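Lab notebook: predicted structure, single chain.

Context: the supervisor wants predicted structures on file for every construct in the current expression panel, including those that have not yet been purified. This is the next one on the list. No modifications to the sequence; it matches the entry in the shared construct table.
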Amino acid sequence: MNNILQNYILRFFLKILFMIFGIFILFVFLITILDEIGTLKSFQEPTLIDYIFIVFFKSPTLFLNFVPFIFLFSGIFFFLELYKNNEIIALRNSTFSNFKIILIPSITSFFLGIIIVFVLVPFSSFFLKKYENLKSQYSDTSNLLMVNQTGFWIYEKRDKNKIFLHLDNLNLKKKTYDSGSIFIFDNNMEFIEKIDLKEGKIFNNKIELNELVTKNDDKKLMINKNKITKIDLPTDTILSKFRNVETVNFFDIEKEIELNQSIGYTTDFLTTRYHKIVSLPFYIFLMIIFSGLITINLKKTASYLVYGMIGVFVSISLYFLSDLSVTAGLAGYIPLILSIWLPILLISIFNIVGMLQTNAK
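Prediction complete. Output recorded below exactly as produced.
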């Protein structure tokens, strides 16, 4: 008898979950379509196929950000339906406690979270990389970034020439670099000159050059010591390179961390992404418990609209709590890893206290 009831609870919860998933998928596609209208305008010759691919490639990453809240809303409406149909009373009469009723969808969600980590996360990274490649291919201005064992590289296409910038030991916190080179070509890729850089700083999206050794196509060398020159390069894009780590496959994060450490680059954003992904199943698990506690305490005293407003309020609050905690970690006020797991620890404490009180009812 218990197995039959457990299977019923599981099937009913999955039905609600897939319905909420479908609603959020449509919502994400709508947001992406509206958001990417501006992106399409920057394309030289946009086509309908370009637009479809842009939306398709970006949507999985945006959808992934909504996953914890999808489970929160699914849990709220699942438990609300049980109360609405008086099924919660029948389950209690069949020796099902509040704890067990909440635990079945919670454990199911935890394993679904693991599937999301190993399936949806890699796919979202793959598609987001396709999205950025498509934008760089058709956009009027092209700024390409790459990090490998040789250091940091940026390619910038200008009206009359093409610039390749190479920097060694770029420190994003201090905004300094040890050395580097600038290779300048014309639009036909004919070499114009090379500028060797010997340490400098980054100010207001400009790279400050302290000591230059310039080599032009006539093989002449020119040394300018103690002369400060600034080259206008998109260093804001350089910084965003290390923040946009969502293009890095989950299975490659540890390798990317080792690579960045070997060439002196920050690993904070990669570390943040890694622990956010690892914590996702636990986050989802706690969201179901949290939704169960909300619904059991309110029972049928509130309308669907009230429950929806509560879900929106909780989602926004948790989002800002998580964002504030990570920001504090990146700023060095608290350990970075602790800043990622701190909201989950707080929700866990709240759920434990709530479960003890609810199960006693």
